[in-house]
Amino acid sequence: MTQAMHFSTADGRRLVGRVEGESVVAAFDAPAEGFVPADDAWRAVRDANGERFAIADVHVHAPVLPRKILAIGLNYMGHVEETNLAKPEVPVVFAKWSSSVTGPFDPIVIPHEETRTDYEGEIGVVISKRAYRVSVEDAWDHVGGITALNDVSGRRAQLETPMRQFTVGKSFDTFTPVGPVITSVDAITDRDRIAVRTVVSGEQMQSSTSDHLIFSIPEIIEYLSRGITLEPGDLIATGTPGGVGDERKPPRYLVPGDVVRVEVEGVGAIENPVEAER
Known about the structure:
This protein is mainly β and 278 residues long. The protein has two domains: 3-60, no CATH class; 69-276, Fumarylacetoacetate hydrolase, domain 2. The protein has helices spanning 39-46, 77-83, 155-160, 166-170, 217-224, and strands spanning 3-8, 14-20, 23-29, 52-54, 59-60, 69-73, 92-96, 101-102, 108-110, 117-118, 121-127, 143-150, 153-154, 176-184, 195-200, 203-209, 235-237, 259-264, 268-276. Strands 1, 2, 3, 4, 5, 6, 7, 8, 11, 12, 14 and 17 form a twelve-stranded mixed sheet that branches. It has a five-stranded mixed sheet with strand order 9-19-18-15-16, with no helix packed on it. Strands 10-13 form a two-stranded antiparallel sheet. The longest helix is centred in the N-terminal third of the chain and has 8 residues, at 39-46. The radius of gyration is 18 Å and the shape is globular.
């Protein structure tokens, strides 16, 4: 299994490296966009023989800082059913600003105005090469790897405003934790059955596998690339399973002091403490 990590050392160097157990082996200086999983970048990571660092001694950043984050709503039947909405006939797409990206262990900060902050654990797909009008059959050839992400959602902003401000409610600063690594596609044992799980302060909230997606990862890529050029480093959030806090009775929103853990099979877990804006 090859996993790439984007990290900073104690002396301020920002690097990309290959994960080996509890260590990371430096491959190259990290560019502004982090690790873009193109073929040449993966070769550099696989061949890395630089300095070795204990992961516990470095600061782990989001592995990639994408130009575009394209997210899919209502893509697990469990989530469709809990919202009492109709099963979508085509993918439901919305955007998240890249400024919402934060590290895999950094705080989620709730803005003063937001009263309904929710979690959404998801499988993240990172594009490796330009994709335009890509077929389902060729879609995986344009994927550089997978990661874990939390599509944190401010439901007040998203749903209570008259025009339903999805982009605003989904794009508050720190509302897209990503990481801790990107795992190469060839290391994924079963690309059609990737497990995802969300735990909030020790309580399991979500658990499913990607074979329960309404629109598969290749179908999502085919749909998005009709008229939209997907670029290397772009991040696709593939949808969240049932069990979100907003649909629970009573609702279970994130509050300061919570810790949200999102696990993706073959990737590992992100784990973010929740804080109030100061």
